[in-house]
Amino acid sequence: MITTYDISKTFYDSKRGEIHAVCPTSIAIRKSEIFGLLGPNGAGKTTLLRMLSTVLSPTTGTATINSLNLLKNQEQIKKNIGFLSGNTRLYGRLSPRELLDYFGALYEISPQQIKIRTTKIFDMLDMWEFVDQRIEKLSTGQTQKTSVARTILHDPPIYILDEPTLGLDILTGRTIIQFIRDSAAQGKTILFSTHYMEEAEMLCDRIALMHQGEILDIDTLDNLKIKKNKYHLADVFMAFIKEAP
Amino acid sequence: MNWNKVNIVYLKEIKDTLRDKRTVMMMILVPILLYPLLFMIMGQLMTAGTKKLEAQKSRIALNDSLPGVLIDMIRENKDFDIQSVDNPVESLKAKEIQGFLTKKIINDTLQYVVYYDGALDKSRLCEDRLTGILNRYLRQEQEQLLLHNKVDTSVLEPFEIHSKNIAPPSRMGGMLLGSMIPLILIVTMVLGAMYPAIDLTAGEKERGTLETILTIPIQRLELLFGKFLTVTTTAFITGLLNLASMILVYTSGMVQIGKLSELMEFGITPYGLLWLIVSLIPFALFISAAIISVCLFARSFKEAQNFVTPVYLLIMFPSFIAFMPGVELNRTLAMIPVVNISLLFREIFLNNYPLGLIAFTFLANSFVAMLFIIIVVKLFHVESVLFGENQPFQLSLKRSHIRPAPSFQPSSALLIFALVMLLLFYIGYFAQIKSIVWGLVITEWALICLPVILLIWFFKVNIKQTLNLKKANWTAFLGTVFTGIGALGVMVWVSRLQMEIFPEYQELVESMEKILNISTTPLHPAIGLFIFAFSPAICEEMLFRGLLLSSLKKHMPGWMVIVFVGFLFGVFHVHLYRIVPTALLGILFTYIVFRTGSIWPSILAHFINNSVVYLLVNSPTLVEKIPWLIGESWPTLKATLIMITLMIFGIALIEMRAKNQIMDDK
């Protein structure tokens, strides 16, 4: 579903010079799997996901998403993914309903279809209570629900979620975890990043361990544990870092 | 580009903007309430003040030697309150009295002298009243003298003088409105555009909604146009509202400006109004694009406000030109944004409709607006601009706290440029007026070179990388020599063209020649070349093709850096008529360094250019043979072709070298 070919990203910073945020990386994510990207802050997870969601363009390499070339079919790719991160905030002066109408129009969904789709989403996420209030007035949980609604509005086959539970309380975090599980059950492909080991253990079919811009290994949780002969994922991760060049 | 999506963004942004209280305040309340109210109150205060002033008596002192008749005349006049003071002049200084009248005999001539304080309104009024009385007294004396000698008093007035103002009150009012409205209008339009511009760019970055919108299937161009049109709309509406309210306030007679009000009548014809509105459109486009282009660099609302302030001042100052006497809209001025709109408005309020100049203004503003739009579009595709997390200039004055860096950040580099410009204004020009030779030496080495070196040392910036000190090979140098010589011809051509369009240019060339001419400043040719060619080639290149280029090139598209650094180089030479040729030269030099990666070729090119100009000015015999060299006539076709060929050949060599370089690096 998502395949990257030596994709990399280098930033230029006047103070520190060239920074290799993501070293050439090749990964292949299968249809309907939950793929976790695990690593500490600054490992390059966000940069990699931003490239795959077309927000940043890669310095070298490319990727295909649902058989579409990342460098050539950006508009089509955007229609195929739902991207959610701590950085994707919402317009505070609009209401959830206005926001979804706006994004729906940009996704080129017809007004009737938007109405049908939003009604369904409002039911599903239990949002009716606040759909006409300004987003700036909503609670964190309500805002997060609106963000999820925004991500699934166009019913894409792929979700790219960058630290979706970061900074949320346990209850709101639960909503997100549940959402990921439900989506996987519906056959969606999910690529998500986190630095919470438990989250990765709980959800992922396969995990990629990322550190300083490099992928250290990709495997199922059980295999990773066997490889390093450790029980906790955190210990597995530390063992990989120690061996890294 | 899908205009339907632009429209969706536009409608949403307008809705969003109208829900922002700050913007609505700036867009509606300030222009339609605050400014007119301010004018009404100011007018009332002025009228009240004048009336109050006129009702007051002037306290004066009189010298005892004055004739009794005159003293009686003053006593009878109710405007005066005569005081007796010991030292009248001191009392006047102490503001105890407002005037002092005395009599003197100087060189056998009798003089009546009125002492007053010109800085005080009351005292000026007193002087006016006293001279009025003196004139009446003079007339009385003359008549008595004539009567005494039995001469008819009509000899005093063989004829009468009358001035008649043919301007109807509407034109008198137009004159006032035409000077006042442009300034207020420009200020309100900028304020109206400022908040939405900041909100839709830096505000969106700060709130994190930019990343959201970039994951939605909309092209950046469509997004940008939607935003741009929103800002333009608010600027335009603010302008319209302000214009409407100002005209309404004035025409309804709500503003009274003392006696002036009797002479004036405020109004505008529907035809004039139409032209005002039409010319506002490209102007709104221009300010919106200009403001958005700076806001894009800011990461937060607060930072954007700091960035916009200088732009705001830059836009505001030229609008003062409408207050300047004797300046009228002409073709040259119609090409300068802001200045053109200020002067055009004055014309329209005077009921003049110079259609040619209106069209010129319209086109000039549209053109500049378009230029800015292109820049904004390019910037909107640069990731470091959209997601830049650069730290601004760190003013840690402890050198031990500063970490080494490969080059300066763009904001720091521009600050250094501003610093050098300041030094140039306050020290350089002063020194050059005292002594042109020493002034130039000081300017180049002490005000440009020294600060650059010191800042590089202090901030621990890599000197090799910052000044592009990489070695260049012979192909690059050869290319540069050809390009440099060819460019000279092109410069002559451009200068000549400029001279045809702006004849004033000639004076400048003559004054330039005076500076460079050895005959007025006797110098050994070697010393002359050192001052006029070698020093600028080293020092100016260090600043422009070194520091500025290296810090900007990673943050902007290549062509934009080249044009921008070239433009700064033109601005640096602080003369309106030198900006275009020097900026072109600057663009060429910057291009050479950008492509070769080395500053040495551009130092050579700068040296060639300056020394050729210097030698030409000082060898009249050569100029006589080839008069076009100093722009006295158009270059011959043959010469032009040779020069262009040389330049193309030079550029080809540089390009070839640059391609090889990339291969080598790989």
Explain what you see.
The complex is a heterodimer of chains A (245) and B (666). Chain A is built from 9 helices and 11 strands. With 245 residues, chain A is an alpha/beta fold. Chain A starts with a strand and ends with a helix. Chain B has helices at residues 3-18, 21-55, 68-76, 88-93, 121-148, 169-207, 209-214, 220-251, 260-263, 270-295, 301-316, 339-349, 355-379, 383-387, 410-434, 436-458, 463-466, 474-501, 505-516, 525-552, 558-572, 576-596, 600-617, 620-625, 637-665; strands at 58-62, 80-83, 99-106, 109-115. In chain B, strands 2-1-3-4 form a 4-stranded mixed β-sheet. Chain B is globular and about 110 Å long. Classes of the chains: A alpha/beta (245), B mainly alpha (666). At the A-B interface, β1, α2, β7 and α3 of A face α1, α7 and α14 of B.
Unreliable residue stretches of chain A: none
Strand content of chain B: under 5%
Q: Give, in spatial order, the strands making up the sheet with the most strands of chain A.
A: 7-8-9-4-10-11
Mean pLDDT of chain B: 83
Shape of chain A: globular
**Strand count of chain B:** 4
Q: Can you tell me the number of structural domains of chain B? A: 3
Please tag this protein with its features:
heterodimer, A: 245 residues, alpha/beta, Rossmann fold, six-stranded mixed sheet, five-stranded antiparallel sheet, globular, B: 666 residues, mainly alpha
Question: What layout of secondary structure does this protein have?
Answer:
The complex is a heterodimer of chains A (245) and B (666).
Chain A: E1 2-13, E2 17-25, E3 28-29, E4 34-38, H1 45-52, E5 60-65, E6 68-69, H2 74-80, E7 81-85, H3 96-106, H4 111-125, H5 140-152, E8 158-162, H6 170-185, E9 189-194, H7 197-203, E10 206-211, E11 214-219, H8 221-228, H9 233-243
Parallel strand pairs in A: 4-9, 4-10, 7-8, 8-9
Antiparallel strand pairs in A: 1-2, 1-3, 1-5, 5-6, 10-11
Chain B: H1 3-18, H2 21-55, E1 58-62, H3 68-76, E2 80-83, H4 88-93, E3 99-106, E4 109-115, H5 121-148, H6 169-207, H7 209-214, H8 220-251, H9 260-263, H10 270-295, H11 301-316, H12 339-349, H13 355-379, H14 383-387, H15 410-434, H16 436-458, H17 463-466, H18 474-501, H19 505-516, H20 525-552, H21 558-572, H22 576-596, H23 600-617, H24 620-625, H25 637-665
Parallel strand pairs in B: 1-2, 1-3
Antiparallel strand pairs in B: 3-4
